[in-house]
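Researcher: For the annotation table, I need structure tokens for Reverse transcriptase Ty1/copia-type domain-containing protein. Please keep the output clean. Sequence:
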Amino acid sequence: MWYQRLSKYLIKEGYKNDLVCPCMCIKKSYTRFVMIIVYVDDMNLIGTSEELSKIAKYLKREFEVKDLGKTKLCLSLKLKHKTNGILVHQSAYIDRWLICFNMDKTHPLSTPMVVRSLNPQKDLFHPKKPNKEIFDPKVPQLNAIRALMYLTQRTRSDIAFAINLLACCSFEPT
């Protein structure tokens, strides 16, 4: 009901709901634009400074609004505002999972995976062979792969190939 009320109020001011993502309302012209992204009872406003001040005043007429300034954290994404743009990262998310999997004391590498051998007999990434011991089911490999897949969809596309390869061998990890 809250979203319907907000949406109707914004449509009166000329905003349009995005067809693909209905939690986003957009108003644009040749020189100005504003996007309002709604998440439960929070809003992120993105746009030209003139339009941002207009919409802030408009929203304050109808709703009790608290301006928290520039967004610093949104859905586990950290945003650092810089003069030449915005840096988006998930270092807190990564640190939390490293601690969870007892990997917080490990040393970082420059590549997301070991180099693969062209010889199928020596390749580390292969299906389980007979009599090969699999990892203890108490070790949460699938949870680690899920956590890493979340990263690949947001900020770390550079590890996508390695994580997808691990996911292929996750049924019986050796």
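Researcher: And a one-line annotation?
Model: The chain is about 35% helix and 20% strand.
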